[in-house]
Amino acid sequence: MLVHRFPPGAPPGGDQPSRGQGGPGPDWRITCFYVDKKHRGQGVARAALEGALDQIAHAGGGLVEAISEVTTGREAPGRFLFSATVELLEQFGFARGRQVGKHAWIVSKVVDPV
Questions:
Q1: Phi and psi angles of residue 59, each rounded to the nearest 5 degrees, phi first
Q2: What is the block-wise mean pLDDT of the chain (114 residues), using blocks of 10 residues?
Q3: Where are the membrane-spanning stretches (predicted)?
Q4: Domain range for residue 68?
């Protein structure tokens, strides 16, 4: 898993999909999320996401964003699942913000600091 932290007060930019959309930009973005085929369905992604959100909370929290794919009702090719599934992220409290492709969404969640 790769998580990127934006510097405080970062200006709107092309690498930040939610900026310029009428709301605040993310403090964090989950940019890459990969589980090898041999280990899928064993809770690896869930454990990685839980760990990442815990680390974000300990680092001060903030708005976390990911771009992910909806998989309900279809078999999504693995190459599209570089940031987990929308369904998994929603189980952790992420909400769909903006659709950016046929099945792709920007999802976000505010993580409280601990």
A1: -95, 10
A2: 76 48 77 84 92 95 90 68 83 96 92 96
A3: none
A4: 2-7+24-101
Strand locations in 1-114 (E): 2-5, 28-32, 62-69, 95-99, 104-111
- Note whether 86 and 69 are within 8 A (CB): yes
Let me know if residue 14 belongs to a domain: no
3-state secondary structure of 91: helix
Query: Residue 28 half-sphere exposure, CB side, CA atoms within 13 Å?
Result: 24
The pTM assigned to this predicted structure is: 0.79
pLDDT for 89 equals: 95
Which residues face 105 on adjacent strands?
A: 68, 99
What does residue 105 show for φ and ψ, rounded to 5 degrees? Answer: -135, 150
Overall number of domains in the chain: 1
Tens digit of pLDDT for each residue in 18-35?
Answer: 544 556 689 999 988 788
Round to whole Å and give the CA distance between 53 and 72: 24
